[in-house]
Amino acid sequence: MRNIIFCLLLITITIGCKKEIVYNDPIPKHDSLTIASKFVHEDRIINIWTPPNYNQTVDSFPVLYMPDGGIKEDFPHVANTLAKLIKENKIPSYILVGIENTKRGRDLCGPTKIEYDLSYIPNAGGANDFRNFIKNELFIAINKKYRTSSRKAIIGESLAGLFVVETFLLDNNMFDAYIAIDPSLWFNENYLVANFKTLFSNNYNHQKKLWFANSDATDISKHAKELNNQLEQSNKNLIFKYTDASNEQHNTIFRATKEKALIWTLNN
Prior knowledge:
Blueprint: H1 2-16, E1 31-37, E2 42-49, E3 61-66, H2 75-87, E4 95-99, H3 104-108, H4 115-120, H5 127-145, E5 148-157, H6 159-170, E6 177-181, H7 187-194, H8 196-199, E7 209-214, H9 218-234, E8 239-244, H10 253-266
Parallel strand pairs: 3-4, 3-5, 5-6, 6-7, 7-8
Antiparallel strand pairs: 1-2, 2-4
Helix pairs in contact: 2-10
């Protein structure tokens, strides 16, 4: 009887545990450089992937920037996805620039006094410094080393998605296109959506594109839906697309939606 009870208990525990998803993305051929940043006060490793036709032409290329851009982070699978979509003629050729993390929560979150936030991200508050690093150091380094056009896009998921939305609202001239996948809009008591009318600009003139989506995470989906409502009511000059991907989980939505996001956002 004890053996039967033990086996039943083991089966229950096994069924109740979600299997961790492990991906073995091949690391594409790429360049890496290190920038000694005066804004974030540390050396930052940058990974750069150029499209297959980069060395076959003298043309300049648009650039897709991404936080979480380390080799052991999201850089390989995004670079491989770009290569696939370019080969299939579904998007134009883009250079990919990945920023490897050091202190992720610090760089991707603005300041907060909320105890819950600080218990989860004790070093939050460095997003503006990180933005200045990208704008005043990284852009310059990439433009100097590579043939780049003026068009720039950014992609991020979770806290990186929060950074994308915050940048869109606070400094929207930095990029032409924004992709925020399951952005952590709960941060700082939903500050970005709650203060949307104050933060939102009214002069996009059909020159900016925003794509965002939410998973089944309720602390994100409810705020993403509200952000969509605010955008629909605010400005017809902005080109945006909202996707309710509540059939996905927070740890599956990036790979499930990235192709749709890139195709819609990167095409002119």
